[in-house]
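batch_manifest entry 22 of 60
target: ArnT family glycosyltransferase
source organism: Pseudomonas azerbaijanorientalis
requested by: lab member K.T.
priority: normal
notes from requester: please return tokens only, no post-processing; we will run our own comparison against the previous entry in this batch. if the run fails, retry once and flag.
--- input ---
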Amino acid sequence: MRRSLSPRVECLGLMLLALLLIGAGLGLRQAQNVDEERFLGVALEMLQNGSWLIPHRAAEIYGDKPPIFMWTVALFTWLTGKPNIALYLPGLFSAVTVTAMVYDLGRRLWTQRIGRNAALLYLATYQTYSILRTGQIDSFLILFTSLGVYGLARHLLLGPAWRWFYAGCAAMGIGVITKGVGFLPALLLIPYAYAVHKGWPGVVAMPGEARKWLLGLALMLGAIAIWLLPLALSIILNGSADEMAYAREILLRQTAGRYAAAWHHREPFWYFFTKVIPQYWLPLVLVLPWLVPAWRRQLQKRDGRVLVLLGWVVLVVLFFCISTGKRKLYIYPALPGLVLVAAPLIPWLLKRWFKKHPRLRRVFPALVATWFALWFARGFIEPLKDGTNIDQVLMAQAATMTRGADLVLVNWEEGHWLFARQPIVHFGMDNSSIEKAALYLRDHPKAYALVPDDILNQCFRAEAARELGENARANWSIVGADADNGKCQPPETGKAYRFSWNDPHMPMVPAQAANP
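--- output ---
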């Protein structure tokens, strides 16, 4: 009889697999999309200007997201001195930790074999690979939502375990100040309450413990206060009008307002079922035709574990379906719960398939190994295929063409700010119009402007412009005050933000001192 590995050794092996899959190509990767450019830039600007409570983007307050992820990237940058590695370390840390939690919870709820199946399913799912390898907030949010699920599940399904419940509540609080939806694990309480009310086995009833339950809520609010309380005190004591506007933006408009009436990424109710789950939950989605009837049978047997975890997955997906704004990464927090309720059925399903197709038993291990090997190889191929960020090339050329003079940005992108090698001037991310740039150049004739070619003729003579190059969004040109065609007469430029990196080769090395 084959002797199985101890849970600790097996868990360490799965964590190592997560490290290899998600860490493949680390050091070759470079910020390539607007989210990565934005979050890396905000983190580096924090290091440079010391404004930790209120994030900034090119000297303007950035009010879209709380700062926890940017704090973490800044910390890893300070520790490693390599921003392009620091950006991806939160996702790598999440991969290793969440894999361990999924394994351990599956082992405790069912068996060690089920825990292993759950961890492998989690790592094999395409959405895990596509999100944890990015430098985006969701690659770190999954750590706190999964810890919330782990802590609450240890208490609700295996408890009483009040310490784990409190740990889960604190994790939800940190999740909220990472991204507003960090409270999602609390939805576990809905199917749990139903199971307790109906007397289902597999859940732990804990009547008469109101104070202990309320303490969990207090710990969640206390974790949120780690950032929110200093922010509130700072604004009350010496906050500017812009900082007060930031508080309203981040606490109201970017949370409840964005959920109820999104202004970006508007999609229909069924978006996740048609555009996301069929692709991003591969390969698990392929066996849903067998899993759904099996789950129904388990629910008919009143299995509280399945009711709580599967009910939670359904509630999370439904929560995001109701919102008008949707992105493919929104439902990722539900994946650990999904693999946990799928894992107990995998041995039954494989046994059924192997019985019908004996040859499949021999080739299945090779298929699994090949699947993971391809993800590992892709980790090295993708960065080489992407190459250098084109905005880094363009901004280096712009600094050479203008000899490091002030550069006014028009309809700019995060990459222009992140890779700037000279002082940049803008009038707000959403308000840097070509008319304001023309007026600014009249008042500052030694400055230049970076303008997309499709609107160049509105204020400047095309023959006097110097072509810079093309990125995914537009062709760009450099113009000076001598290119002004006199057609634009804005009343005033408005507030101008001027920003420069202390080290002009950002983000290749971290900032060292505050911007004077």
